[in-house]
């Protein structure tokens, strides 16, 4: 059972796929104040919730979603049809760093997917190739609220603090114009959804796949509850290309 399928299952009850509430998602997208007929690019779109909500809020906009997981792209396609948005969302099953476009975008999204480009600085450099001058990016990234143990840092990643994260995001010709810092309630909702949905699926599917899913869930939950809960932060930055 591949990891992409496990991730798709785990995110079924939380398609935002980040520690961000629906209200916070809407506030970020409204603050972008996109123009009429805006073009949106979502790199590492997952199940497409960020793009789909943007299209609902901006009825003349169109979006491209890019993700390497065929399971996530299939879920995004189904959601677009269900919400009457399939004619305005084009999905691409490919790695984000391989995507190219003939025209620039008004908004570039990359939330929780900066690893696709090798990190935050590289992601901002990549987004600058897609977003027009004066356009916007919404980028979600982890940071350390407090220093983690060496074991947790090795497992999760070597993130800077919040100030260092903002500095890195602005290092390639971008200016932060708004941000949302996820609170503990948003983190808990995300993590309990992730682990709980996977646990329920494992219980409903006994056998090797269920055992694998349960093992992944327990490993993740142990790392969260015993390691990074309260230490790992998440910020979603709205940045303008200058």
UniProtKB/TrEMBL annotation:
One of its GO terms (molecular function) is methyltransferase activity. InterPro entries: CFA/CMAS, Methyltransf_25, SAM-dependent_MTases_sf. Residues 40-135 form the Methyltransferase domain. Pfam families: Methyltransf_25. Its EC number is 2.1.1.-. One of its GO terms (biological process) is methylation. It comes from the Bacteria. Keywords: Methyltransferase, Transferase. This is Class I SAM-dependent methyltransferase. It comes from Microbispora maris.
């Amino acid at each position: 059972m591949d990891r992409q399928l496990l991730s798709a299952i785990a995110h079924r009850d939380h398609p935002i796929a980040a520690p961000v509430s629906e209200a916070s998602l809407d506030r970020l997208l409204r603050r972008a104040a996109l123009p009429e007929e805006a073009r949106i690019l979502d790199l590492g779109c997952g199940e497409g919730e960020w793009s789909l909500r943007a299209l609902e809020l901006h009825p003349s906009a169109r979006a491209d979603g890019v993700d390497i997981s065929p399971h996530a792209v299939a879920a995004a396609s189904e959601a677009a049809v269900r919400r009457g948005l399939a004619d305005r969302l084009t999905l691409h099953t490919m790695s984000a760093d391989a995507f190219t476009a003939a025209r620039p975008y008004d908004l570039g999204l990359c939330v929780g997917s900066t690893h696709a480009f090798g990190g935050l600085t590289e992601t901002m450099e990549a987004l600058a190739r897609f977003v027009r001058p004066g356009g916007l990016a919404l980028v979600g990234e982890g940071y350390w609220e407090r220093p983690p143990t060496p074991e947790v840092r090795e497992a999760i990643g070597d993130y800077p603090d919040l100030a260092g994260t903002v500095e890195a995001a602005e290092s390639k010709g971008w200016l932060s114009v708004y941000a949302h810092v996820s609170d503990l309630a948003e983190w808990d909702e995300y993590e309990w959804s992730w682990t709980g949905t996977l646990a329920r699926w494992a219980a409903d599917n006994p056998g090797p796949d269920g055992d694998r899913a349960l093992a992944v869930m327990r490993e993740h939950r142990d790392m969260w509850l015993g390691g990074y809960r309260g230490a790992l932060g998440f910020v979603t930055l709205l940045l303008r290309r200058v």
